[in-house]
Design a protein that fits this description.
This protein is of the alpha+beta class. It is built from 3 helices and 13 strands, in the order αββββββββαββββαβ. It has a domain of about 140 residues: Mog1/PsbP, alpha/beta/alpha sandwich (Protein Transport Mog1p, Chain A), CATH 3.40.1000.10.
């Protein structure tokens, strides 16, 4: 028996000696790995550090959008010529159409806005008159049919070396308010009254188109 015990002790001693420098792996009750050494010391078991894979930052590219398509409605210009080739009017025929009203027999050109409720006419006379006298005659004529006539604005301007009087007038006819935006011109060649008008409540909707139409006047 002693021999067997001795042999077993000897083998255990040899085995322990071989691993003395390396230590013996063990695990604490908390599950922490430790290394036990023959001299009675111990150390926490260090787990090999696994190299962390570099995270590749994914950059999301915002897809480029094509520029917005601008749908511009083409403006088709037409020309109307007055009597004796004295003047012409260049206008947008997508907005205006020629018309003829029996109530305006003195007008040689009449136009109606395609949206309705906006009107224009040109009255031409071969006799010249001063713009101040012309303004007085216009107001006198309007007051003969309107219960109220008021000049909102008056401006003098030039169109190709011809002086123009631009008048904005409000009036009331049979209890209905109307607004006018008119160009007047006179010279040795004659006199032009270019009149645009609509109901006062609608003037803000038509004023830009009235202005573009009036500015299309050319006096030869």
């Amino acid at each position: 028996m002693k021999k067997i015990v001795f042999n077993f002790t000897f083998i255990l001693f040899i085995s322990f000696s071989l691993h003395a420098n390396q230590g013996v792996d063990a695990t604490t009750e908390e599950g922490q790995g430790v290394v036990l050494y023959s001299n009675g010391t111990w150390a926490f078991k260090l787990e090999p550090i696994q190299p962390q894979a570099k995270k590749t930052k994914v950059v999301k590219k915002t897809p480029s959008l094509p520029p917005p398509v601008k749908n511009k409605k083409a403006k088709i210009k037409s020309t109307l010529k007055g009597q004796h080739n004295t003047y012409k009017i260049i206008y947008d025929n997508t907005l205006w159409k020629k018309t003829r009203s029996a109530a305006n027999d003195d007008a040689e050109i009449q136009l109606e806005h395609k949206a309705g409720n906006g009107y224009a006419m040109v009255i031409f006379d071969r006799s010249p008159i001063s713009l101040e006298d012309l303004k007085k005659q216009v107001l006198t004529t309007m007051r003969s049919v309107a219960s109220k006539v008021e000049i909102i604005s008056e401006e003098k301007k030039r169109i190709k070396n011809h002086q123009i009087m631009a008048l904005k007038i409000n009036s009331t006819i049979e209890n209905t308010p109307f607004s006018y935006f008119n160009y007047y011109a006179s010279g040795e060649w004659g006199t032009i009254q270019f009149v645009t008008y609509t109901a006062t409540a609608l003037m803000a909707d038509y004023e830009a188109d009235f202005t573009a139409l009036l500015d299309g006047l050319t006096i030869k």
